[in-house]
Amino acid sequence: PRGPGELALHSGAPLVIAWSVRLPGNRHRLLVERLERPPCTGDHKCDLQAIVAAATQRLEAAIRDAPAGWTRFHRRWKTRPAPDGVPQSAGSAAAID
Q: Quick one: which of 67, 58, 73 has its CA closest to 5?
């Protein structure tokens, strides 16, 4: 999402990224980290892209550190095989959820 980057560029506010890590005993630890902002170049589009990339890289690192704590909700596979082997649209009545 580029919204936080837009706000940071417009206001000069620092950026933070937060996530939780599951602990034993059904507990969680909230981790909040200041995101180091790439230096501004004056090119808004380029600066925004650099901020979004930095945030994405940090989130990716958090997921790699504890992948079991993350669930993917995106419907990655748009088609699913039907019982007869002919692919069906993921939104069709024949799709298996």
A: 58
Q: 3-class DSSP state for residue 93?
A: coil
pTM equals 0.66
pLDDT per position as a tens digit, 39-89 = 889 999 999 999 999 999 998 999 898 888 777 666 666 676 677 766 555
The candidate with the shortest Cα–Cα distance to 59, out of 85, 31, 84, 39, is: 31
**Is residue 34 within 8 Å of residue 18, measured between CB atoms?**
no
Tokens of 86: 């002919």
Closest C-alpha to 8, from 58, 44, 57: 44
Q: How far apart are the first and last CA of the chain?
A: 28
